[in-house]
TrEMBL record:
A GO CC annotation given for this chain: plasma membrane
Superkingdom assignment: Bacteria
Phylogenetic lineage: Bacteria, Pseudomonadati, Pseudomonadota, Alphaproteobacteria, Sphingomonadales
Listed InterPro entries: AAA+_ATPase, ABC_transporter-like_ATP-bd, ABC_transporter-like_CS, ABC_transpr_LolD-like, MacB-like_ATP-bd, P-loop_NTPase
Pfam family, one: ABC_tran
Database matches in PROSITE patterns: ABC_TRANSPORTER_1, ABC_TRANSPORTER_2
Designated name of the protein: ABC transporter ATP-binding protein
Residues annotated as domain ABC transporter: 21-247
SMART domains: AAA (SM00382)
SUPFAM superfamilies: P-loop containing nucleoside triphosphate hydrolases (SSF52540)
CDD domains, A to Z: ABC_MJ0796_LolCDE_FtsE
């Protein structure tokens, strides 16, 4: 197991604005091979404000990625509701949910979801272009963001020639380029060496501190959990503050 890099904990945010994200009473089950449903979790409550950095840990398979998908409106809960930027997701059609996602959320997927036919700059520029930015300035901002994640001068490369860790950094650049109010990151440092992991975590923390984003990170890394202002643990009965040193993995 490789050594973990210590990160400085973030300062707690001052509550002056409404929550960026509110979740109340979320429950989710998944289908089983036998045609039944298996409950993953219930009673998940969460409030995230501008500048918050929170980490979610928990045993493998408990439903952390599933929860992130619910929070982003990519999947529907069995019960409960999610509000983003004051707008409840329940009852919205796909187009309205997508519009909220584009405007409010930067999502770092565990599987990257980088588009193979676009070069790196165009991949990273996508959230800006979808928000209506002109191509030129969007590509310029994308190249600057690639620079920040350690991929300076690689904007014309295509995803096929990148390593897993490089693809992860492209995914992070794309999630942050439009300075979204809410950043949801699924194992954002999972494929990275300790130095690059630290750099990426610093970028996520800077996004909270400078852009005022609320950042929620799913992680198995003790160092990342400690660096977040709040460390939470997901179990079948919901989200709870994590006891120090009790990392579910
Ligand atoms: N669409 C689906 N159909 C059936 N089962 C699913 C579906 N989506 C998720 N699951 C199951 O739900 C459980 C939770 O998956 P999820 O990926 O959310 O867990 P996790 O806590 O993020 O795990 P890990 O830490 O290993 O990444 C797993 O057992 C998974 O197989």
């Amino acid at each position: 197991m490789r050594p973990e890099t210590p990160f400085a904990p973030t300062a707690p945010a001052v509550r002056t604005a409404p929550a960026v994200l509110t979740a109340r009473g979320l429950a989710k089950s998944v289908p089983t091979a036998a045609g039944q449903r298996r409950q993953l979790f219930a009673h998940v409550d969460l409030d995230l404000h501008a500048g918050d950095v929170a980490a979610i840990t928990g045993e493998s398979g408990v439903g952390k990625s599933t929860l992130l998908n619910l929070l982003a409106g990519l999947d529907q809960p069995d019960a409960g509701n999610v509000t983003i930027g004051g707008q409840a997701l329940s009852g919205l059609n796909e187009a309205a949910t997508t519009a909220i996602r584009c405007r409010h959320i930067g999502f770092v997927f565990q599987a990257f979801h980088v588009l193979p036919h676009l070069d790196l700059a165009r991949n990273v520029a996508l959230p800006l272009v979808l928000a209506g930015a002109a191509q030129g300035p969007a590509l310029e901002a994308a190249r600057a963001m690639l620079d920040q994640v350690g991929l300076a001068g690689r904007g014309s490369d295509h995803p096929a020639v990148l390593s897993g860790g490089e693809l992860q950094r492209v995914a992070i650049a794309r999630a942050l380029v439009h300075r979204p109010p809410l950043v949801l990151a699924d194992e954002p440092t999972g494929n990275l060496d300790p130095d690059t992991a630290r750099r990426i975590l610093d970028l996520l923390l800077a996004s909270a501190q400078q852009a005022g984003s609320a950042v929620l990170i799913v992680t198995h890394s003790e160092a990342v959990a400690q660096a977040a202002g709040r460390a939470l643990s997901l179990s079948a009965s919901g989200l709870a503050p994590r006891a120090p040193g009790a990392l579910g993995a």
